[in-house]
Amino acid sequence: MKILVxxxxxxxxxxxxxxxxxxxxxxxxxxxxxDGADALAKVSSEQPDLVLSDWNMPNMTGIECLQxxxxxxxxxxxxxxxxxxxxxxRAKAADxxxxxxxxxxxxxxxxxxxxxxxxx
Length: 120
Known about the structure:
globular, alpha/beta, five-stranded parallel beta sheet
């Protein structure tokens, strides 16, 4: 399985990747994207099985990326790993087709809770 991790912070991408490995998802290929526009392009070129995206990023936000993917017909599983998790954001994410929204700070148990069943 290939997982695309999108965040404008290289450090945050590394934290997400480390948490994925700590949660037991250490045998998957990881692709990184530095913003929503990069993630949108890499969904086409890399064909990931799952996208984990920050919400707030320059050039194209995570929700704009998800909306663009769904508008293009992409059904790639998509979840947010972001600093905010308000009810409004969760509703907006779900309406756009996100599977989940993990709010920071998170743990490996949080990842397991949301990703078991999504990652084979």
